[in-house]
Write a structure and sequence with these properties.
The complex is a heterodimer of chains A (110) and B (112). By secondary structure, chain A is an all-beta fold. Chain A contains no helices and 11 strands. In chain A, the strands form 2 sheets. In chain A, strands 2, 4, 5, 9, 10 and 11 form a 6-stranded mixed β-sheet that branches. By secondary structure, chain B is an all-beta fold. Chain B is built from no helices and 11 strands. Classes of the chains: A mainly beta (110), B mainly beta (112).
Chain lengths: 110, 112
């Protein structure tokens, strides 16, 4: 059964304190793994797609990495505007849809 | 750039009432999706449409129906609303395979 688990559920960081969010997955063949950011009252906003183990993508203070069983979203020197819920989703082979984790709620304190 | 537009943004219904949630995209995407998001459960797929003229059930289709009206529009209907359908509903669209899904800002639905 396809499954996505994100940890931690919530994370509080001081501004400038780097950390990582984890997304563990079990799928019968991975077509792609997606990271989204969701602000309160808004829909998920696309950040990255990763397709194969060893791949990395970067955008400003965010860097996503992928292994065969998990993905990490590294946040370097975060700012308060990085506060949001970060969602991970997998696209299994043979499926037309995504399976989402429950997200990590990140709060960055000034 | 509008992207994916959902209407209404908020709605309160009484048990047993019916309602249609509207979704339109202006990105010429083939595939469209309806999700619900509940606390602690993440986004769950209700129905999707891989292309104009086709619809398929997702993980939680019971109590819902959909219509792919044309390439741009995909509606979700609750025929007889139940309190368990209180949720935030998101519509999404996608172009080619392996491209990301793009989401609207949701409809917040409460059923009393």
């Amino acid at each position: 059964e396809d499954q996505v688990t994100q940890s931690p559920e919530a994370l509080r960081l001081q501004e400038g304190e780097s950390s990582s969010l984890n997304c563990s997955y079990t799928v019968s063949g991975l077509r792609g793994l997606f990271w989204y950011r969701q602000d309160p009252g808004k829909g998920p906003e696309f950040l990255f797609t990763l397709y194969s183990a060893g791949e990395e993508k970067e955008k400003e203070r965010l860097k996503a990495t992928l292994t065969k069983k998990e993905s990490f979203l590294h946040i370097t020197a975060p700012k308060p505007e990085d506060s949001a819920t970060y969602l991970c989703a997998v696209h299994p082979r043979g499926a037309n849809n995504l399976f989402f984790g429950t997200g990590t709620r990140l709060t960055v304190i000034p | 750039n509008a992207g994916v537009t959902q209407t209404p943004k908020f709605q309160v219904l009484k048990t047993g009432q019916s309602m249609t949630l509207q979704c339109a995209q202006d990105m010429n995407h083939n595939s469209m999706y309806w999700y619900r998001q509940d606390p602690g459960m993440g986004l769950r797929l209700i129905y999707y449409s891989a292309s104009e003229g086709t619809t398929d059930k997702g993980e939680v289709p019971n109590g819902y129906n959909v219509s792919r009206l044309n390439k741009r529009e995909f509606s979700l209907r609750l025929e007889s609303a139940a309190p368990s359908q209180t949720s935030v509903y998101f519509c999404a669209s996608r172009g080619q395979q392996n491209q990301p899904q793009h989401f609207g800002d949701g409809t917040r639905l409460s059923i009393l």
